[in-house]
Specification:
alpha+beta, 2 domains, three-stranded antiparallel β-sheet, two-stranded antiparallel ribbon
Amino acid sequence: MKIIVYKLNNNELRIFNPNPSSKKDDETENEWMQRLLQDNAIVPAIAIEAEIVEQSSLPSDRTFRNAWRMNSKSISTDMVHARNIHREKLRELRAQKFIALDEQYLRADESGDIEAKRLIANEKQALRNVTADPAIEAAQTAEELKAVMPDILK
């Protein structure tokens, strides 16, 4: 199955999956896709590099969908952008842990448990450090990056 892929001026990639029922009986698949490509309701006039590509050319894993970039007729993952997406996901995952640790810290503070406060402070610092994990920068593929999940967030 063919799809239409185009990008906007902010490099955001858009994908249009045509509905097979929109194909006219007397059209070939190529004529149909060309007609859709010219339709401003489908591909806006501000679109850049609109292409007809095979659906199979899309990455199967959509984890870093917002980091996909089009180069000619192939789709690749912009690893710089994917790393930022991954860091944001790590921040979301650690947010709940911070809330729980803040509660534990308050209880330790109220009871005067200095050792517990020290341990909690260390754990909170470890959470702050998850976005600086060198494995994030070392990841060369989306699969490698997706696998970077510090134990503290599991």
